C-alpha cells in the first residue's frame, strides 16, 4: 500500500475538519443574518444574495413580446421595486414568531404615539438623516396604516372643534384624485373638500394640502392660498432621491411619508408623519386609536427592517458594485423616463412635462425630476386621452378629470413591472404614429 | 510521553468531527423547521417547542409576590395567550421575505374584497367550519385592520344615501364603551350614535349593534329594538369556545370577528366580516379602500398561519397531551373564573355575573360562560367602584358609566398576564374584607 502523503495525515485532516466544525457552528449562531438559509417555498424560487449589493442592471431593457393583453397603468402599484428586493434576498427577511406582538401595546417608554414600535421610530429618524430630506429633530412621529390613514388623522387633528361647521380642505389642481373621495367619504361634520386651491376665495380658516413632488404631475409645490388662517399639511410621499433631487431638508409642521413610495412596500401598509406640534400629534394618535386601535406591529417590524436595509445600503455605497437602494431606484426611473421622452420626441403627438435640472444633495449630481407618474398630454385631435389609449391600445390610465384637470391629460404609472412598461412604450409609440 | 489511548487516535477523532460536521450541515439545510435556531433577542428568552403540543398547565397558579405596582386591567389586552404561543414555538413562526407583498394587490382571482389574501380567506372558512360557530357558505369575507375598522366599514355600507340625515346607531346598555366614540368621532353625516337600544323610541330606519357574548358583561344577546326598519350588525368577537359554549352556528347578515380575541393576536390588527349581501360587502370593501387602501399583507399572512395552527390543533386534539388551542384557552379562563368566583364568595362584598350552563357543541361539554371581562359590581356603601379599586388597591378598571350603566359596576379584563391576575385576586380579596 502506498504511504498516505504527509499533508493528508489523520491529524491534518482532523484540524481541517475541526475548522469546518467551527465555521458551521458560527454560521448557526449568527442566525438570521446574511448567511442563514430558509427552505420555504418562496426562497427556493429566488436567488440568494451573497452580499449586500444588488446588481440590477437597468441599462439594457430587452424587447418584450406584446401579447395584446390589457396594460393597467392606472394605479401607482410600486412593483418596479420587486427586482431590487428579490436581489437583496434574506437581507430583508423578517422572521416573526407566533408569540410576538400579541399585545396591543409596544414597549415604547411612554411615547406620545403609544402604538409606535420603537425600532421603527429609530429607523425612520435614521433614514431621514441619511437622505437629508426632512427634519426629524424635535418632531413627534405618528405611524399609520399608510399615509392615507395619516392624512385623515391630520384632518381630524387640525379641524376646529367649535360650531363653525366643517373646515374647507383644498389643494391646487391637478391634485391627487383620492383626496376629495377620502375627505368626503363619510360626510364629516369636521372637514369637507373645498376644491382647487388656485381658485379658493372663501374667508376664514382652511386646510391646504401641499403634495410635493405632486401627484399626478411631478412638480414641486408650495402653498398657493397663502392667507392668514391657513393650516398646511405637506404630503411628501415622493420627496425621495429616485424621484426628485433633494435640494433642501423639508421643514414643515405636518409632513407625511409612506413606505409604499419610498421603499416600494405598498402591501405592508405603513406610513409615518413628522409632526411639530405636540397637541396635533396627540390628536392624530387618537384618531388612529379610534379608527384601528393602532397599526399592525408585524408591518411596523418589517418596515423597520426594510428601512434599516435601505439606510445600511446608503452607508455602504460608493462604487459600482455596491449602489445604495436610492441609486438603484434612480437608475430604474432614469432609464424609463429617458425611453418615455424618446418615444414622445419620436411620436410628436403627445407630451410629458419637462422639469428644471437641480443638484441633489444626496446623490451628489444634477438631474431633472423623474416622477412616479407621467402626466401625459395627448396631442390635438384627441379630446379624451384616457378613452383613446384604452380603446385603441388597451392601456388603462387615469383621466385628468379625476385630478381636477381636463381629459386631454392622463396619469400613467412609471412604477409598474418592466414587462408592462415595455409593452406600454411600444404601443404608445405605434398608436400615435399610426393614428394621427 | 504516554501513548494516547487508541480510542482517542487522530483517525477516531476525525471520524467524530466529520459526524458533527454532517449533523451541523443537516441542521443548516433543514432551515426554519423545528430545529433551527434563531439568535434574535426574543428567541433567546423563550423555550423552543420541540413538538406540536403545548403543555400549559393552568391548574396550579403559584403565589405571586405583590410588589405594590399599579395593576391595569382596564383594557382587553389578550396577553393571557402569550404562554400558549410561546410554547407553540416555531410552529407559528412566519418568515416574510423583503420582496414579498410589495404590491397593493393580492392574487385573489377577482375576489370582491380585492385586498384579501386568498390563504387567509381559506383559513377563516376552515376555522369557522372546525369550531362550528358561524355560517360561511355563500358569505363574502371582508378583511379589516381589526374588527374596529370593520364596524366603521359596516356603518358606511349600511347607512342610507338619501338626504334623510344620519341614521341612528343603537346598542343595548351596557354596551362596548368604544362604540359611541368611534361612531361619532368625525361627526359623520351618514350615521350617529343613538344611545341605548332598550330605550330607543324613534321612528324610521336604525342600525342595531348586537354584541354576543356582550362586552362588558359577557351575556349572550339578541336584538332588542325589533322594529321593521332595523338593520343589524352582529359583533361576535367573543363567540369562541374559550369564552362561551358554542350552542349554534351563528347565521346573521353581518358578523364581525377579530384575531385579537379569538387567537389573542391583538397587535396583528386583523379582523374579518362574514357578509351575506353582495352590495354590503362591496361597500365595506370600498370603505377600507378609502380609509387605508386595504389591509397589511404581512398581518394577513401571519393571521393565516396562526389560524392554520389553531385549526390543526383542533384536528389533532383528543388526548391529554394534545389539546387544541381552544381547550388550552378554555382551561386558562376556567381556572381564572373559578378563582374569581371563590374570591367573590369569600368576600361577599362584590358580585360577578352568573351564567346559565349550556352544552358546547365544539368542546362536547356543559359549562357556563367564562367571558373575557368580569362585570364586577361593588357592594353597598361603594358608589364609585372604579374609584374605590383605583385609590384603595391600585387596580385600574373601566367604570360602568362608560358602558351606559352606573358607577357601581366596573369592567375588569380576564385576559391579562398571570402575574397581574394573581395580584388582582389577592388585592380584591383583601380590599373588600378589610374595608367593609
Number of strands of chain A: 16
- The CATH topology of the domain at 102-314 in chain A is given as Aspartate Aminotransferase, domain 2
| Main CATH class of the domain at 102-314 in chain A | Alpha Beta
Report the order of strands and helices of chain A: HEHEHEHEHEEEEHEHHHEEEEHEEEH
Q: Can you name the CATH architecture of the domain at 102-314 in chain A? A: 3-Layer(aba) Sandwich
Rg of chain A, alpha carbons:
25 Å
Strand order of the largest sheet of chain A: 3-9-8-7-6-4-5
Distance between the termini of chain A: 88 Å
Count of helix runs of chain A: 11
Oligomer: homodimer
What is the averaged pLDDT score of chain A?
88
The largest interface is: A-B, 89 and 90 residues
Question: Structural class of the helix and strand makeup of chain A?
Answer: alpha/beta
GO molecular function, one term (chains A, B): carbon-sulfur lyase activity
Cofactor (chains A, B): pyridoxal 5'-phosphate
Transmembrane segments (chains A, B): 12-29
Family (chains A, B): Belongs to the alliinase family.
Key descriptive features of the protein:
homodimer; 436 residues; Aspartate Aminotransferase, domain 2; seven-stranded mixed beta sheet; 15% strand; globular; transmembrane helix (chains A, B); membrane (chains A, B); transaminase activity (chains A, B); PyrdxlP-dep_Trfase (chains A, B)
Amino acid at each position: 500500500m502506498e504511504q498516505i502523503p504527509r499533508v493528508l495525515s489523520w491529524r491534518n485532516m482532523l484540524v481541517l475538519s475541526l475548522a469546518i466544525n467551527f465555521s458551521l457552528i458560527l454560521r448557526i449562531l449568527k442566525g438570521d443574518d446574511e448567511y442563514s438559509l430558509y427552505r420555504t417555498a418562496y426562497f427556493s424560487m429566488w436567488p440568494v444574495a451573497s452580499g449586500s449589493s444588488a446588481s440590477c442592471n437597468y441599462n439594457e431593457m430587452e424587447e418584450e413580446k406584446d401579447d395584446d393583453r390589457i396594460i393597467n397603468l392606472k394605479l401607482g402599484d410600486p412593483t418596479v421595486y420587486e427586482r431590487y428586493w428579490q436581489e437583496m434576498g434574506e437581507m430583508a427577511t423578517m422572521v416573526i414568531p407566533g408569540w410576538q406582538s400579541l399585545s396591543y401595546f409596544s414597549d415604547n417608554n411612554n411615547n406620545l404615539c403609544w402604538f409606535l414600535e420603537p425600532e421603527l421610530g429609530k429607523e425612520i429618524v435614521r433614514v431621514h438623516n441619511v437622505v437629508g430630506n426632512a427634519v426629524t429633530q424635535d418632531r413627534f412621529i405618528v405611524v399609520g396604516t399608510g399615509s392615507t390613514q395619516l392624512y385623515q388623522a391630520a384632518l381630524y387633528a387640525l379641524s376646529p372643534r367649535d360650531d363653525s361647521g366643517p373646515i374647507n380642505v383644498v389643494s391646487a389642481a391637478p391634485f391627487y384624485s383620492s383626496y376629495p373621495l377620502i375627505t368626503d367619504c363619510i360626510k364629516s361634520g369636521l372637514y369637507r373638500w373645498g376644491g382647487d386651491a388656485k381658485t379658493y376665495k372663501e374667508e376664514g380658516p382652511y386646510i391646504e394640502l401641499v403634495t410635493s413632488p405632486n401627484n399626478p404631475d411631478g412638480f414641486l409645490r408650495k402653498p398657493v392660498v397663502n392667507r392668514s388662517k391657513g393650516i398646511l399639511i405637506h404630503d411628501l410621499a415622493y420627496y425621495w432621491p429616485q424621484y426628485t433631487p433633494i435640494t433642501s431638508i423639508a421643514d414643515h409642521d405636518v409632513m407625511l411619508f409612506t413606505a409604499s413610495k419610498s421603499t416600494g412596500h405598498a402591501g405592508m401598509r405603513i406610513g409615518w408623519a413628522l409632526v411639530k406640534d405636540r397637541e396635533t400629534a396627540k390628536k392624530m394618535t387618537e384618531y388612529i386609536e379610534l379608527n384601528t386601535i393602532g397599526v399592525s406591529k408585524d408591518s411596523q417590524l418589517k418596515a423597520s427592517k426594510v428601512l434599516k436595509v435601505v439606510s445600511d445600503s446608503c452607508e455602504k455605497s460608493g462604487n459600482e458594485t455596491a449602489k445604495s437602494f436610492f441609486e438603484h431606484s434612480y437608475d430604474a426611473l432614469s432609464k424609463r423616463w429617458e425611453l418615455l421622452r424618446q418615444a414622445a420626441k419620436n411620436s410628436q403627438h403627445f407630451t410629458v412635462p419637462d422639469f428644471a435640472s437641480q443638484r441633489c444633495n444626496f446623490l451628489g449630481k444634477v438631474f431633472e425630476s423623474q416622477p412616479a407618474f407621467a402626466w401625459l398630454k395627448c396631442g390635438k385631435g384627441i379630446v379624451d386621452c384616457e378613452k383613446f389609449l384604452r380603446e385603441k391600445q388597451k392601456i388603462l390610465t387615469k383621466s385628468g378629470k379625476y385630478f381636477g384637470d381636463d381629459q386631454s391629460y392622463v396619469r400613467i404609472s412609471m412604477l409598474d413591472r418592466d414587462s408592462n412598461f415595455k409593452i406600454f412604450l411600444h404601443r404608445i409609440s405605434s398608436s400615435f404614429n399610426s393614428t394621427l
